[in-house]
Amino acid sequence: MLKFTAGRVVAAAATAFGLVIAAQGTAAAAPKAIEATFGGYGEWNPDPYDGIPGDSIRACDTTADGWGIEVKIDIGRNGTWDRIANTRGHNSPYCSPWKSGNIKEGTPVSIQVANVNGGVTYPKGSLLLSHA
Which domains can be identified in the chain, with CATH numbers? Predict the structure, then answer.
């Protein structure tokens, strides 16, 4: 009976190992959209996907209402905005280019999306806590 049980344990372990290896190849996901309060959204892309660089952000303005979209990332969640993408100076609809740069895997990040108009930031916005 021990041989039969040991064989099942080995088979289960081999199956689990195979699933882990298979899942690693399919881990990449599409960028995560983060809604602004109104008129647009930001995107966070932690891993390269379909030609989009990893560890990148961009801002997308979808409504011609005089307000733009700004996306900021705080790498390490230390209170300093390290990268900013915005739609200032562009007519809607418009998405900014991706702003990217390598971030060590597992590093905690905060991504903030806000509506902006000139030097004014709408007082409400969205915040996403994630990891690189």
Answer: 32-131 (2.60.40)
